[in-house]
């Protein structure tokens, strides 16, 4: 037990040791501290519970060379894919943790045993928790809704902060990648003092993490890696040179044939680089004769302009104190302020205009001075459908997130009727205020005005309007300019900076009582009771232009909502047998929690667990638990948000799976038999819609429910001192999982099954029957069943002539991960498969070897990811590992993402003046991530390390 406590294997969970122990006279045997381990509210002298708990103490964390709580947690073997700093397109600077690949919103995050503030989608941004305050992290790899309530389906992360610290500690970390980028600098100062009746700890920290550009790594410098000279095939058709889309004439020689071309789409033309357009009046103007046919040579490599690793700074101040009012009652208070500033960058906006191609009314007017078809200069007077990538200004997204945490409460212990009890009562307030700044999107009102009628005035200046009727304040916009040709004056007029505000707030009142009930032959029965009253609220207030839909980016409406709940729980620990043959120990635990929500009603969730020691060296444990996840604010109250979805319209005449039923239902709804889907990529089945669809909330959404099971053993052989082996089987089944029906599912339900409720979710444009609107919202449709095994092995030697050695292995094996979109859908198996930013590794593992001799120490860490397979989008091109693979349905090409192992090393030396210096290299062999052809906006998954790069760092710690 003493060894376990030293190793940080237990949690005081918010209560000082002085309050948690009975102090005997000097002549009495030592009484071990009663401690609370994550997963149970009952304090015990036993470090092992019926549930598997992984503990990362501060010493182990500091050997990894990372600078955030998120990086620490996403390295554990049970972690699945989650947001991190490598998410640029689609990221927002936040980082979270997803246990068992079940999603970050199904992993509960606690700080000192209490809930932390969550985002609108129910996830917790770990970047709001400074690593400087962490004493250890306890990871409960099991469901625990009966103990902690909602969200504890996949597991619980409990971050224990520094407590009872005395003295001063200064720490700094300086590092960068071997290419000289991605700089990191941290500075931390922690001060603590003990008095006769209490303790206070204060921590200040600053973390600065620099960017890495995608163009500075070979694997990410192009949109799709591995095609060599043909890489430009995947560049964007939105060129940095102005492009004319409707150059060809309208053709309809046969209404029943596929030559119908209602918008004159054909041989696209662009203004080439270096073009000099000087009109007869001496002004810059590009005539039709200066355009050239579009070719891939003019496609734009947008990948190089993106961040590969996004920059971020975090500043934090934390204060925690305890004052003993009496020998048995103490006041505890704590406060935190954390500010995160983060940024993402994308290539300049791919701006476009024209109703025929792009579904908007920003086509260039025939009377625009810059229109090559302007009749005043001999043109045919057509409205130009155009596009221009605004490389003159990249898109930049910045976040300023301020997080506040306050807790105040009383705690203590007492004896009654020869029984020991402990209690606590407290109030917690958490709030996160976020201001987002978006630079590089266009004000479409000004774009429309800028490409409207314009003329050369008598003063030699091109102005909006017509002669004698100039529009004041308007700047004519020429989107057909060659690369870099859009003037600063034009940019200032058409671009705008959006300001969006967000807030998430949580207030809770808790009261807990735990202690002894009755002495049984095998020991004392323990119990815990508690109540909690909590309110969650939040909002998203987009910029007024964004909410009105006047921007080139996706519009969205405001989101605002709140809910409250009251809960009561109880837990008992019952010793059954002790010190009898075949049962050194046998005990069971029971717990139940009743939750009453203001939005969906009530729910009760219970659990049963057991521990059995057939003999001293072996512990067998098991657990069965019910769980639930309440729908978060975004699920319930999300305002409509635009999204340009890629889909296939099954009413399109070229849809290969069109059945007579689908054809008849399409025709009955008014869609003609020769209808062809139109998308941003051209004509034909499947592509990105030219009209934005809408995602919204569902106030009728209900909770997800789950059942978790674990069975495992802990073996500590007495004949091998220092060896401990843990092996656990686990299973999680989720019912009524929240998911949003896809466009394909909605169309299938409408036209294949005739479900009018789904037909009502979308509409078609009367002029050409293109789907111009669809509502997509979350529903309790899906099922998930995941299963696997965890192995943890630790071995430590005592002092030898060569120092002390320790070795560790932590591995998670996923044997099953199955899902059904609906209960009637086919079961989809995901284990070993790769999906876009969702790797489903069969095996993840970490191996550690540590050596300490006197003042010198060295740690070697290996991180393993098993291989994956993905569907190959390029069969026959020779880039996928198995692009000729066939199955019963025909060609089914696949690509293998090979197994990947990263190696990290750290050396440290304890200096005579109570200082420590550390030198380390992560990814010492510059391992490249496996190439994926499915990953969005990149060619490797963001869960892997930055490719071809060592991360080199130095740390210095000074204690006073």
Automatic annotation (TrEMBL):
It is a multi-pass membrane protein. It comes from the Bacteria. The keyword Membrane applies. Residues 47-156 form the TonB-dependent receptor plug domain. Residues 496-924 form the TonB-dependent receptor-like beta-barrel domain. The keyword Signal applies. Its main location: membrane. Keywords: Cell outer membrane, Membrane, Receptor, Signal, TonB box, Transmembrane, Transmembrane beta strand, Transport. Residues 1-20 form the signal peptide. PANTHER family: PTHR47234, TONB-DEPENDENT RECEPTOR. This is TonB-dependent receptor.
């Amino acid at each position: 037990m003493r060894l376990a406590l030293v190793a940080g294997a237990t949690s005081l969970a918010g209560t000082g040791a002085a309050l948690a122990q009975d102090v005997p006279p000097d002549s009495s045997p030592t009484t071990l501290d009663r401690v609370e381990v994550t997963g149970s509210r009952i304090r015990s002298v036993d470090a092992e519970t019926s549930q598997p708990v992984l503990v990362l103490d501060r010493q182990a964390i500091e050997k990894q060379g990372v600078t955030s709580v998120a990086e620490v947690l996403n390295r554990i073997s049970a972690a699945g894919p989650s947001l991190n700093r490598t998410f640029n397109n689609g990221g927002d600077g936040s980082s979270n943790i997803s246990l068992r690949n079940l999603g970050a919103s199904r992993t509960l995050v606690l700080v000192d045993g209490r809930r932390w503030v969550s985002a609108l989608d129910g996830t917790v941004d770990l970047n709001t928790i400074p690593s400087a305050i962490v004493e250890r992290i306890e990871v409960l790899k099991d469901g625990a809704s009966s103990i902690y309530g909602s969200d504890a389906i996949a597991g619980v992360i409990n971050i224990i902060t520094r407590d009872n610290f005395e003295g001063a500690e200064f720490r700094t970390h300086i590092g960068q990648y071997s290419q000289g980028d991605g700089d990191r600098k941290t500075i931390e100062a922690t001060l603590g003092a003990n008095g006769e009746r209490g303790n206070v700890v204060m921590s200040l920290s600053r973390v600065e993490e620099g960017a890495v550009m995608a163009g500075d790594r070979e694997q990410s410098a192009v949109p799709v890696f591995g095609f060599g000279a043909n890489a430009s095939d995947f560049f964007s058709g939105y060129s940095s040179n102005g492009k004319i889309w409707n150059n060809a004439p309208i053709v309809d020689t046969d209404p029943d044939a596929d030559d119908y071309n209602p918008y004159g789409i054909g041989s696209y033309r662009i203004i080439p680089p270096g073009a000099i357009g000087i009109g007869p009046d001496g002004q810059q103007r590009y005539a039709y004769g200066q355009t050239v046919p579009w070719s891939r040579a003019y496609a734009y490599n947008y990948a190089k302009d993106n961040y590969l690793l996004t920059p971020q700074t975090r500043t934090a101040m934390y204060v925690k104190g305890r004052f003993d009012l009496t020998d048995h009652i103490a006041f505890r208070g704590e406060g935190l302020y954390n500010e995160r500033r983060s940024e993402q960058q994308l290539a300049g906006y791919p701006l476009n205009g024209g109703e025929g191609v792009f579904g908007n009314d920003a086509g260039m007017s025939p009377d625009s001075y810059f229109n090559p078809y302007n009749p005043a200069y001999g043109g045919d007077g057509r409205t130009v459908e155009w596009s221009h990538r605004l490389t003159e200004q990249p898109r930049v997204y910045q976040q300023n997130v301020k997080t506040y945490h306050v807790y105040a409460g009383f705690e203590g212990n007492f004896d009654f009727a020869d029984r020991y009890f402990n209690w606590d009562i407290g109030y917690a307030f958490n709030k996160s205020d976020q201001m987002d700044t978006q630079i590089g999107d266009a004000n479409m009102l000004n774009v429309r005005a800028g490409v409207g009628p314009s003329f050369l005035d008598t003063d030699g200046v091109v102005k909006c309007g017509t002669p004698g009727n100039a529009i004041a304040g308007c700047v004519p916009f020429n989107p057909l300019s060659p690369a870099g040709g859009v003037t600063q004056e034009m940019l200032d007029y058409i671009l705008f900076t959006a300001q969006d505000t967000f807030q998430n707030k949580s207030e809770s009142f808790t009261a807990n009582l735990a202690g002894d009930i009755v002495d049984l032959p095998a020991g004392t029965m323990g119990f815990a009771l508690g109540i909690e009253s909590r309110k969650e609220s939040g909002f998203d207030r987009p910029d007024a232009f964004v909410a009105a839909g006047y921007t080139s980016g996706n519009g969205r409406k405001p989101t605002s909502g709140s809910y409250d709940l009251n809960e009561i729980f109880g837990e008992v620990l019952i010793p059954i047998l002790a010190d009898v043959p075949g049962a050194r120990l046998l005990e069971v635990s029971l717990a139940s929690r009743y939750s009453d929500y203001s939005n969906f009603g009530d729910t009760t969730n219970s659990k049963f667990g057991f521990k059995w020691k057939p003999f001293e060296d072996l512990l067998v444990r098991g657990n069965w638990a019910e769980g639930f996840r309440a729908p978060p604010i975004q699920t319930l109250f999300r305002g409509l948000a635009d999204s340009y979805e890629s889909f296939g319209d099954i009413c399109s005449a070229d849809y290969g799976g069109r059945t007579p039923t689908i054809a008849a239902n399409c025709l009955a709804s008014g869609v003609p038999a020769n209808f062809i889907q139109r998308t941003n990529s051209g004509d034909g089945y499947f592509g990105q819609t030219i009209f934005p669809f809408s995602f919204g909330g569902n106030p009728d959404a209900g909770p997800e429910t789950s059942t978790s099971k674990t069975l495992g053993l802990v073996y500590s052989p007495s004949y091998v001192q220092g060896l401990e082996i843990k092996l656990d089987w686990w299973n999680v089944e989720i019912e009524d999982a929240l998911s949003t029906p896809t466009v394909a599912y909605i169309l299938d339900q409408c036209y294949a099954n005739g479900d009018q409720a789904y037909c009502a979710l979308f509409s078609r444009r009367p002029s050409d029957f293109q789907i111009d609107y669809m509502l997509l919202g979350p529903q309790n449709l899906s099922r998930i069943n995941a299963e696997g095994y965890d192995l943890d092995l630790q071995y430590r030697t005592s002092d030898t002539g060569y120092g002390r050695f320790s070795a560790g292995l932590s591995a998670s094996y996923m044997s099953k991960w199955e899902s059904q979109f609906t209960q009637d859908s086919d079961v989809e198996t995901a284990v070993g498969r790769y999906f876009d930013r969702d790797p489903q590794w069969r095996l993840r593992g970490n191996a550690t070897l540590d050596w300490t001799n006197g003042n010198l120490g060295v740690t070697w860490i290996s991180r393993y990811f098993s291989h994956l397979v993905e569907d190959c989008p390029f069969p026959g091109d020779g880039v996928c590992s198995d692009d000729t693979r066939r199955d019963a349905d025909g060609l089914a090409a696949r690509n293998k993402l090979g197994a990947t192992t990263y190696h990290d090393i750290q050396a440290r030396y304890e200096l005579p003046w109570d200082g420590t210096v550390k030198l380390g290299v992560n990814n010492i062999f510059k391992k490249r991530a496996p190439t994926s052809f499915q990953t969005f906006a990149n060619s490797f998954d963001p869960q892997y390390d930055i490719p071809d790069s060592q991360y080199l760092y130095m740390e210095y710690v000074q204690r006073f």
